[in-house]
Design the sequence.
């Protein structure tokens, strides 16, 4: 048999129907739903007189617009309240499991899927959110879909899909202390560009990927979409299985052992061909900071803001000029000289327990700088929050001057009250630095949790390697 | 869905690479529960000054492009968020055809669900179209889906590639959920053979659980 990639094996196992000249019909094992992109899908279903085919494979959560404090107070944002009511009603009517904002298991959809053990190797998983690629860290084929496709999956539990091309990204070597999973993925996007992965499903491999915890692997897969890729995945191994064991939706005992044996078979066969291969050396990587208005506009923290004239391509020169104008930055400025107004530690990219542990080590016994207007820690889920509190991380953050909030998407997208004001600059552990992403006319610099934590303490970006903080993972 | 066969319309050039869907529809409009009315907020932050005064600098507000229904764009158009609000806004504003060297995957896919034809042409041809659009007043293009061509009134003719199935969906305005439901027996057979299921081994704090 021809050697196959993990992607191809999962694809082949989920083909419901193949016909010449048509996309394949692919079965969806898990469908995750949130309040932001689902109301129109449920409404469409109802208008056509259709039913949710598999409510038992569908799981819903409130995350995008939820407040991160004072949840017991009435929701003043009427539009957001309307979304919550719609999701509540749609789940009740269809019998879909819902984690509402008062659930102890509530959190960002891409945090709670893995945390509950809903995300499993070898499966297909979709959600109306581009960061669904996060779940690929388990060897799951997971990708974001539009609302029409959400409706399609609700109605049929299938998707019409064309097979993607494959890209292998190999990260060899060992990371230096102070270099995080976030720096790996930012460096990858810096190298391939934000459209570099278009049309591809990426499989990450190599020593530096294997060395990452599941939390770190999820950070890497999460931002696959920022490199344009349809999905990102990492073949499951002992780290994956150890993470999964004992989670609420993961089989127990002998069933677990059988599942592990099955999961082991989905790794890429030796000799399997990828359409493209990219290689990076983790030992060469420094902490990364974005300077522009997309995640590919990134540099090492020791670098300076680039001169737009240094780009070869005219379109890139124009884009860089515009980005620097938007960001209020001058070419040649050392990145470490850039002061920040607010710090956000959170989002589906970096709000898991290891992220918070790492950031807490940086801020322990210190205090945020005087020029900081706000420093937020928004755990990715209420479970992460509870675990962090059990370890005393909340106290460390609060003593350092951070706010400690409830779980949600928060300032990554600013659909709730957590918005970055116009003209202000953030160090943010989120995934997008697009114009207006965190708030109209706001300026976002994407960094790792320890880099964000250090920026909060120093009031500007620093090379965290010089602080010599012991790594968590 | 509104079928698409052939469309002639005024061209608006959007000369920026990597236009992301956050720009097409900013987050504050993602809380609406309809698919209609997003045309008013298309490119909101670029298009309006404080108080929703049209920004005269932004191309969409220039009088010569009023009523445009063909958008000429640059590479990696529609990157970022999966929000289908972006193509809803594009279509609701009145655009029926996009012409660009490349698109982001999810956005491209979403276009076909909303009766928008995203034409892909090589960089050089797109450059030429930008030159022609900016030089002429009232420059129009005709996109002919059956023949897979884009033509102007001055003899320019570009052919484009499109997947046959997607072409048929657009031409006939097909409901792709309806198409899939025709294969209900194949879906049922798959479920019979592979038993996709979720089992809960430990209670979680949720509402409306079906039969786990």
Sequence:
């Amino acid at each position: 048999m021809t050697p196959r990639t993990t992607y191809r094996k999962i694809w082949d196992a989920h083909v419901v129907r193949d016909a010449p000249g048509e996309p394949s019909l692919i079965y969806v094992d898990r469908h995750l739903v949130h309040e932001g992109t689902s109301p129109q899908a449920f409404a469409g279903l109802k208008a056509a007189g259709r039913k949710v085919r598999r409510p038992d494979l569908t799981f819903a959560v409130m995350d995008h617009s939820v407040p991160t404090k004072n949840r017991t107070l009435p929701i003043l944002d009427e539009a957001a309240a309307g979304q919550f009511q719609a999701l509540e009603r749609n789940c009740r009517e269809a019998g879909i499991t819902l984690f509402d904002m008062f659930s102890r298991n509530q959190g960002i959809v891409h945090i709670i899927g893995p945390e509950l053990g809903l995300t499993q190797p070898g499966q297909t998983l979709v959600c109306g959110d581009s960061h669904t690629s996060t779940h690929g860290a388990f060897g799951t084929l997971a990708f974001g879909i539009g609302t029409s496709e959400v409706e399609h999956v609700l109605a049929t539990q299938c998707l019409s899909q064309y097979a993607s091309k494959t890209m292998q990204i190999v990260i060899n070597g060992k990371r230096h202390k102070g270099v995080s999973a976030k720096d790996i993925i930012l460096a990858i996007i810096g190298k391939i560009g934000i459209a570099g992965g278009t049309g591809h499903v990426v499989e990450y491999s190599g020593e530096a990927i294997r060395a990452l915890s599941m939390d770190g692997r999820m950070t890497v897969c999460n931002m696959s979409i920022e490199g344009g890729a349809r999905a990102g995945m990492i073949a499951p191994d002992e780290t994956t299985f150890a993470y999964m064991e004992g989670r609420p939706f993961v089989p127990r005992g002998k069933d677990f052992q059988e599942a592990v044996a099955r999961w082991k078979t989905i790794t890429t066969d030796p000799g399997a061909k990828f359409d493209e291969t990219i290689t990076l050396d983790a030992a060469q990587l420094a902490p990364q900071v974005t300077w522009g208005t997309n995640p590919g506009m990134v540099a090492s923290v020791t670098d300076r803001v680039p001169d737009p004239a240094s780009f070869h391509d005219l379109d890139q020169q124009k884009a860089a000029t515009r980005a620097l104008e938007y960001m209020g930055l001058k070419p040649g400025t050392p990145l470490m000289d850039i002061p920040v107004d607010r710090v956000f530690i959170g989002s589906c990219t970096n709000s898991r327990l290891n992220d918070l542990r790492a950031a807490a080590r940086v801020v322990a016994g210190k205090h945020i700088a005087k020029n900081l207007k706000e420093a937020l820690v928004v755990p990715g889920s209420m479970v992460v929050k509870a675990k962090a509190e059990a370890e005393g991380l909340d106290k460390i953050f609060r003593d350092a001057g951070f706010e400690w909030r409830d779980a949600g998407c928060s300032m990554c997208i600013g659909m709730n009250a957590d918005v970055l004001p116009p003209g202000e600059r953030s160090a943010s552990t989120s995934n997008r630095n697009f114009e207006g992403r965190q708030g109209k006319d706001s300026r976002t610099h994407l960094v790792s949790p320890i880099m964000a934590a250090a920026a909060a303490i120093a009031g500007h970006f620093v090379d965290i390697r010089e602080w010599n903080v012991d790594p968590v993972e | 869905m509104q079928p698409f066969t052939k469309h002639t319309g005024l061209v608006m050039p959007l000369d920026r690479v990597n236009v992301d869907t956050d720009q097409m529809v900013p987050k504050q409009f993602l809380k609406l529960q309809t698919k209609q009315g997003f045309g008013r907020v298309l490119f909101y932050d670029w298009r309006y000054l404080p108080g929703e005064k049209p920004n005269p600098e932004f191309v969409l507000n220039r009088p010569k492009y009023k009523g445009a229904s063909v958008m000429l764009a640059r590479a990696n158009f529609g990157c970022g968020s999966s929000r289908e609000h972006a193509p809803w806004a594009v279509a609701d504003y009145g655009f029926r055809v996009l012409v660009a060297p490349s698109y982001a995957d999810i956005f491209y896919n979403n276009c076909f669900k909303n009766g928008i034809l995203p034409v892909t042409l090589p960089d050089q041809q797109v450059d030429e179209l930008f030159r022609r659009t900016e030089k002429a007043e009232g420059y129009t293009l005709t996109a002919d889906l059956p023949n897979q061509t884009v033509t102007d009134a001055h003899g320019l003719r570009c052919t484009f590639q499109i997947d046959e199935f997607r072409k048929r969906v657009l031409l006939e305005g097909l409901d792709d959920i309806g198409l899939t439901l025709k294969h209900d027996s194949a879906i049922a057979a798959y479920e019979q053979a592979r038993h996709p299921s979720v089992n809960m081994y430990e209670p979680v704090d949720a509402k409306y659980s079906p039969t786990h």
Notes: The mean pLDDT of chain B is 96. The two ends of chain B are 37 Å apart (CA to CA). Residues 26 and 159 of chain B are 34 Å apart (CA to CA). Residues 123-135 of chain B form the longest helix (13 residues).
